[in-house]
Amino acid sequence: GSICAPAPDLPMLGGAYRSRPGAEGEALDKAASDALVDGRLSDAFALADRRCRGPGPRAHHFVLRAAILHKLGRLADAAEDLDTALAIDPADVLANRTVLRSGGTPARAR
After folding, report:
1. What is the distance between the alpha carbons of residues 51 and 9, in angstroms, rounded to a whole number?
2. Which of 14, 68, 70, 71 is the least buried, fewest Cβ under 10 Å from its Cβ?
């Protein structure tokens, strides 16, 4: 896996997005996070969206798509993706950290 740092003005991820080793669709994860870092938001969204709609998406896939949606100014859609991430895995650290940084309530406190 790789660690990709998103643009510094993107607080949603708190400085890093981890493309987790062994995850299905790791190539899509990396391509989407690379496109985000490069500022190619349309490409990033298309790739992340494809991964979220594919088989077996994990919480971190929705967190990545939420970060891209946030960057695109689609805040309500980003919040929905964070809710989906937490529904998949309420203990996901990145999802909970992202919710906290965006002013929401983490899953454990709900």
Report:
1. 24
2. 14
Q: Which two tokens stand for residue 89?
A: 């895995």
**pLDDT tens column, 22-58:** 444 788 889 999 999 999 999 999 999 999 998 889 9
Residue 21 neighbours by CB under 8 Å, 6+ apart: 1
Whether the Cβ atoms of residue 23 and residue 51 lie closer than 8 Å to each other: no
Cα(62)–Cα(52) distance, integer angstroms? 6
One DSSP character per residue, 7-35 reads PTT-GGGTT-EEE-TT-TTHHHHHHHHHH
Rounded CA gap, 63 and 66, in Å?
A: 5
